[in-house]
Design a protein that fits this description.
It contains twelve helices and 21 strands. By secondary structure, it is α/β, with parallel strands linked by helices. Strand 1, helix 1 and strand 2 form a beta-alpha-beta unit. The strands form six sheets. It has a six-stranded mixed beta sheet, covered by helices on one side. The two termini are 38 Å apart. Helix 1 packs parallel to helix 12 and helix 5 crosses helix 7. The protein is globular, with a radius of gyration of 22 Å.
Length: 417
């Protein structure tokens, strides 16, 4: 008969980024922690599947190296990060236009010459906006007046034509909404992170990020396939009827599960996206660059195997294309026709490898936006996740760290991380 495990000091329900970050900080403070995950793997929405030799992330995701929580928690070299081009291609009615960071690719800066992607006034306004967001202290960037992103871009002096040509299609893929209604505070933080960091993909898929966090916990900390039915006065009740005791419980699940376990919890609405993965015999674009569409027939597309060759078997290219909303009859065909135009390639022979719909891909972050929310949800009960912070890797990790601080404070532990 197996030996019964001693009750931990803290139970963390959910092994996504927030839960794993919380567990790390609590372990570092000397607390006994157990992480309970309902699914068969860690990562929450940040998961990777293997399918017929392809690496398929659950929805198109990129990894930004500039986030403070990322730099402080992860061994980036071990992730074997592969960078995207520092810029994007925009498909317009006049062909493709290239937007490149001239500080990183000066040879490609010709695409920013007045009259191509933007006029002189727009380029000057963009330079001022970018310099402020990149160089000002984070508290200044976060603390400015709050508007929608569209209003903020107009206030910065950017013309409607340039916004519609570049910012609207590009940011639609970042915010997962195409009206630029996202809070200007979040926009400035995102723009700052892009200017200061590098967008990458880990060589083994985006799921290797949470896996590294899980691997850094003491052996046996994480229990998979253990869905929680409800919280109890003494801990949690698992779906199989087992009860686990702990003085403190941190709910680090997705938004719907969090609301079920903590009735009355306020959860923002979420954005839904679908990503189509196609295989082609030759790469339709021989560079690791994001491609957007001024007509917004999709959010973005890229040849993933140009970023990370190991995402596809040898001699095959893997193309990722994301759209707002769910998959529906005829939608993949419409996407394929749009891709034929923007890539200037025959897509009729492409194979559809996988479709991934993410129902709660990103919280809606419209004004007024709280950049962070307290974690304490009652006596001995805490909650964390991207629904408690900005919807990003940084936000999820920071939310987990905040929950751990509140647990430590309530436990009378002020040392540690």
């Amino acid at each position: 008969m197996p030996e019964k495990r001693a009750a931990p000091d803290v139970l963390v329900v959910g092994a996504g980024l927030a839960g794993l970050a919380c567990a790390h900080d609590l372990v570092a403070a000397g607390l006994a922690v157990r992480v309970i995950e309902a699914s068969d793997g860690v990562g929450g929405r940040m998961r990777t599947d293997r399918h017929d030799g392809f690496v398929i992330d659950r929805g198109f995701q990129v990894f930004n190296t500039s986030y403070p929580q990322v730099r402080g928690r992860l061994a980036l070299r071990e992730l074997a990060l592969r960078p995207f081009t520092p810029g994007v291609l925009v498909h317009t009615g006049h062909g493709r236009l290239r937007f490149t960071d001239p500080t990183r690719r000066p040879r490609e800066a010709a695409g920013l010459l007045p009259g191509r992607l933007a006029g002189t006034r727009d380029l000057l306004a963009l330079g001022v906006l970018s310099a402020r967001d990149m160089l000002a202290p984070a508290r200044v960037v976060k603390g400015g007046p709050e508007h929608t992103t569209r209003s903020a871009l107009a206030a910065a002096g950017l013309s409607e034509e340039f916004v519609e040509r570049f910012f609207r299609p590009f940011l639609s893929g970042v915010f997962l909404e195409d009206e630029l209604e996202t809070s200007s505070r979040f926009f400035h933080l995102v723009w700052r992170s892009m200017l200061r960091g590098t967008l990458c993909l880990p060589a083994r898929g985006i799921g290797s990020v949470p896996q590294q966090l899980a691997d850094g916990l003491p052996p046996g900390t994480v229990s998979l396939d253990s869905p929680v039915a409800q919280l109890t006065d003494s801990g949690v009740l698992l779906a199989d009827g087992d009860e686990l005791a702990a003085d403190r419980v941190v709910v680090a699940t997705g938004p719907e599960s969090a609301r079920t376990l903590l009735p009355g919890l306020e959860i923002p609405p979420y954005r839904l996206t679908t990503t189509y993965y196609h295989a082609a015999g030759v790469p339709p674009l021989a560079e690791p660059t994001l491609l957007t569409d001024q007509r917004r027939r999709f959010l973005n597309t890229c040849v993933l195997s140009e970023v990370v060759p190991g995402y596809a078997p040898g001699g095959v290219s893997l193309i990722s294309t994301s759209v707002l909303g769910p998959d529906s009859p005829g939608r993949e065909s419409a996407v394929r026709r749009a891709l034929a135009e923007v890539y200037e390639a025959d897509t009729s022979g492409w194979d559809l490898v996988a479709v991934r719909t993410v129902e709660q891909a990103l919280p809606a972050m419209v004004p007024p936006l709280r950049l962070s929310t307290p974690s304490r949800a009652g006596a001995g009960r805490y909650v964390c996740g991207d629904h408690r912070a900005t919807g990003s890797v940084q936000g999820a990790l920071a939310s987990g760290a905040r929950a751990a601080r509140e647990v430590r404070r309530d436990a009378g532990l002020w040392g540690g991380v």
